[in-house]
Design goal:
The complex is a heterodimer of chains A (303) and B (222).
Chain A: H1 3-19, H2 21-57, E1 61-65, H3 71-82, E2 87-93, H4 95-105, H5 111-116, E3 127-132, H6 138-146, E4 151-155, H7 158-199, H8 202-210, H9 215-254, H10 256-262, H11 274-297
Antiparallel strand pairs in A: 1-3, 1-4, 2-3
Helix pairs in contact in A: 1-2, 1-9, 2-7, 2-9, 2-11, 7-11, 9-11
Chain B: E1 2-10, E2 16-25, E3 30-34, H1 41-48, E4 56-61, E5 64-65, H2 74-78, E6 81-85, H3 96-106, H4 111-124, H5 140-152, E7 158-162, H6 170-185, E8 189-194, H7 197-203, E9 205-211, E10 214-221
Helix pairs in contact in B: 3-4, 3-5, 4-5, 5-6
The chains are: A alpha+beta (303), B alpha/beta (222).
């Protein structure tokens, strides 16, 4: 095909958007709403996952040591624990540090007086703070640690972690199902809109075929039209998502309960996803719209 | 040249639209195909356009053996034929110039050629001043002239006119057939399908009558 023909077909595609403006506006709105629904659902799911991961990262197992464990034995234990599978880090937490932290945490004027009753003897035990690499594998790791000598007790948020892990799996499955359903519904709606847009021009297509136009020559303007409307809807949906998301975060951050929940990791900052969002929206809009429109012309090209 | 040899068409609902039709229209001829509604005229046109395939028989149009021509290559055949229809079949979103130019654009004709050829053909059918008008702004006769210009622009070997005067008043009908006769005199084969016997009698010439899917008359009158 010659360049002049490509120019003509491109121009025809753009002209068709204006000529069939009612259907163009309808397609644009349907595409934009579909993209917004999918985009906001993805952002919601991503934020929930971020929160859950944030809580997971706070996981810490504390091992309290027997009183008769001296520094040499503690050092040996530290090395042994570090070599246990799934242990990410081990930090020795002396009873002196524990006492200091306890004093700091009790912001009472009477704290010094209160601790003076304790005297020289520190009643707190030495401990190890252990971070677990894979939280879902915490139970076998704890069993390995428990086999060591010199352990008085272990404090681990096993139940909470189990609930959290289950919740994460549940959110993952539910969000995947919702997203899949949304994508399918959007595809059906968009292809119906494209079909309706092509349907009102079936006479035009039939005439073009009768005067000897090839299928490609007929399809290209529809393709251009679909691409342009898709890109436009993608850009519009990106702008709405960015403005809507930042406003939503502002509002939600004013609510102390939500803020305290999300303050573990914070909401996903817009800078983290804005480029991917614009590219994703525009690409999805263009591909779905252009191919939906072109596929809809197929049955009318069998003249 | 159009040639049909023992062509029959039976639709899936069992209707025998054409039965053992043999026909030959030579290059440069003007032939009227006459018949009442349901006689098989539309089926004959659909066959020549390769919109449908015959149940049996062989068809040759402008050197194309339609039996061997794939549906996906039908555009090659259609580019050698100019069509004129009763309902004009113009694209309402394009003006007169673009409707006529579309045929040339679809075959990748050079822009210079399109710019010279299209105004020339439009002026041939007497619509020089209406090139920027849209079909909905034109009378029936003018729309049919646009359709004629579109059929002519590609310099086809054959023009098939399907009831071209069906939606026109008697005076305009005569003008359109006069135009078709003029085109034929320049060497283009013309096949005009009509049910208006008076018009055929007025102009005379080769007349093929189809009745109940069979050719019942094929001779020169007038």
């Amino acid at each position: 095909m010659k360049l002049s023909s490509m120019n003509y077909l491109f121009g025809q595609g753009m002209k068709n958007i204006w000529t069939n403006r009612i259907m163009s506006v309808a397609s644009f709105c349907i595409l934009s709403v579909s993209l917004l629904l999918i985009g906001f659902t993805m952002l919601f799911v991503a934020n929930i996952n971020r929160f859950v991961s944030g809580v997971e990262n706070k996981n810490e197992v504390v091992i309290f040591l027997d009183d008769d464990v001296d520094s040499v034995m503690a050092s040996a234990m530290e090395n042994t624990i570090r070599n246990i599978h799934n242990v990410e880090s081990v930090t020795f937490y002396s009873k002196d540090e524990a006492l200091e932290d306890m004093k700091k945490s009790m912001e009472s004027d009477n704290a010094d007086q209160l601790f003076s009753y304790v005297g020289e003897e520190n009643p707190l035990p030495d401990a190890f703070r252990i971070r677990i690499a894979d939280i879902e594998e915490i139970s076998p790791t704890l069993m390995d640690i428990n086999r060591l000598d010199g352990i008085d007790s272990i404090k681990s948020p096993t139940d909470f972690i189990n609930i959290l892990t289950g919740l994460k799996r549940f959110i993952g499955i539910v969000s995947a199902v919702i997203l899949l359903a949304l994508i399918l519904v959007s595809l059906v709606i968009i292809s119906n809109a494209a079909r309706a847009s092509v349907d009102i021009r079936k006479r035009e297509i039939a005439i073009m075929k009768l005067v000897g136009a090839t299928n490609t020559f007929i399809k290209v303007p529809f393709f251009v039209e679909g691409m342009f409307l898709g890109a436009l809807a993608g850009i519009f949906a990106s702008a709405v998502t960015c403005i809507g998301y930042s406003e939503l975060i502002k509002v939600l951050s004013q609510d102390m309960t939500i803020w305290s929940i999300m303050s573990v990791n914070g909401f996903i900052p817009m800078s983290e996803f804005v480029v991917r969002l614009v590219i994703g929206y525009a690409a999805a809009g263009m591909i779905i719209s252009a191919f939906g429109t072109v596929m809809s012309t197929r049955k009318y090209l069998k003249v | 040249m159009v040639e049909l040899r023992n062509v029959s068409v039976t639709y899936s609902n069992g209707v025998d639209a054409l039965h053992d039709v043999s026909l030959r229209i030579n290059d440069g001829e003007f032939a009227f195909v006459v018949g009442e509604s349901g006689a098989g005229k539309s089926t004959l046109i659909k066959l020549l356009l390769k919109e449908i395939t015959p149940t049996s028989g062989r068809i040759t149009v402008n050197g194309f053996n339609l039996e061997k021509l794939k549906k996906s290559k039908a555009h090659k055949l259609r580019r050698t034929i100019g069509f004129v229809f009763q309902d004009f079949k113009l694209i309402n979103t394009m003006n007169v110039y673009d409707n006529v130019a579309f045929v040339l654009r679809s075959i990748d004709a050079p822009i210079k050629y399109i710019r010279n050829r299209v105004p020339y053909v439009i002026s041939l059918v007497g619509l020089k001043d209406r090139a920027k008008s849209y079909p909905t702004e034109l009378s029936g006769g003018e729309q049919q002239r646009v359709a004629l210009a579109r059929a002519l622009v590609n310099d086809p070997q054959l023009i098939i006119a399907d009831e071209p005067t069906g939606n026109l008043d008697p005076k305009t009908s005569l003008e359109i057939v006069e135009l078709l006769k003029g085109i034929n005199e320049c060497g283009t084969t013309v096949m005009m399908v009509t049910h208006e016997h008076e018009l055929v009698r007025h102009f005379g010439g080769r007349t093929i009558t189809i009745k109940d899917g069979r050719i019942t008359f094929d001779d020169y009158i007038g």
